[in-house]
Write a structure and sequence with these properties.
Blueprint: E1 2-4, E2 39-45, H1 48-59, H2 75-79, H3 83-91, H4 97-109, H5 115-121, H6 124-137, H7 143-155, E3 160-165, H8 166-171, H9 173-191, E4 195-200, H10 205-211, H11 217-229, H12 233-246
């Protein structure tokens, strides 16, 4: 049986439901309480730099593909993380308060009322950084915290996990699909009937591939350098990037 979360990520488990409240909190979270025995996990993971750039280009389209960006108003809705997101950040030893302050500064300085207006009125670098802060700590985002949290949680579980980097999947989907089938067939053959849970970090795989907005390599590298050199965002991105590297499987 195939399980797919509608939002495209696994919120597993809620930080406040863990038995062990000490950092890192995910060590005390029991996979048996979240998944049935014998679950197979196929975990799609995105590079945080390209994910931020893709998300920025996607949401600033004219017209925007997602109308919620026209209905998101105010610093509280855009920037202030919910308590469980702050706890998730702390469990990863990521400091979110400075990201919230940065987000508030961008929202305050940007012309316009809605998030979409602010995203399109700032210059590319500032607008990209605003979108990145939303992906990290916003109640409307948080995707860049879900991903490393899931990676670390899987590392401390006894689940069978097969990780696939989205960039690899897009570059050579046939080869990655063969690796996926080998993982499934080997696990099923070794343990009998199993249930497989599909975790996709970019909402839904097919729409993600269809809606990717590309820019030239020079601009891509320039934007990545700007993010990486930022005194607040750079260290957090590098930490998240290390999580994605740790998740890679070699076959």
């Amino acid at each position: 049986m195939l399980f797919a979360h509608l939002r495209g990520m696994i919120k597993i488990p809620n930080v406040h439901s863990c038995e062990n409240k000490t950092a890192p909190v995910f060590i005390g979270c029991k996979p048996q309480a979240t998944f049935p025995p014998g679950t197979l996990v196929v975990h799609f993971i995105r590079d945080p730099y390209s994910m931020a750039i893709s998300s920025y280009l996607y949401h600033r389209r004219n017209p925007t593909p997602e109308n919620w960006v026209n209905k998101l108003y105010g610093r509280d809705a855009i920037c202030n993380a919910k308590k469980w997101l702050t706890s998730t950040s702390s469990s990863l030893r990521l400091e979110s308060e400075s990201v919230t302050e940065l987000c508030n500064a961008f929202v305050t300085s940007a012309p316009g009322s809605s998030y979409y207006e602010k995203l399109t009125n700032l210059n590319d670098i500032k607008a990209l950084m605003l979108e990145l802060t939303r992906l990290m700590i916003s109640p409307s985002g948080g995707d860049l915290l879900y991903m490393p949290y899931n990676i670390r949680w899987f590392q401390h579980s006894n689940l069978d996990v097969h990780s696939i980097l989205m960039d690899r999947w897009k570059a050579n989907s046939d080869n990655e699909f063969r690796r996926l089938l080998r993982f499934i067939s080997k696990s099923v053959a070794g343990h009998g009937n199993k249930k497989m849970l599909l975790s996709i970090e970019n909402r839904n795989l097919r729409p993600a591939l269809q809606h990717t907005t590309k820019i030239d390599h020079e601009t891509q590298h320039s934007w990545e350098d700007a993010l990486n050199s930022h005194h607040v965002l750079g260290p957090m991105l590098r930490t998240i990037h290390r999580f994605t590297n740790l998740s890679q499987t070699v076959e």
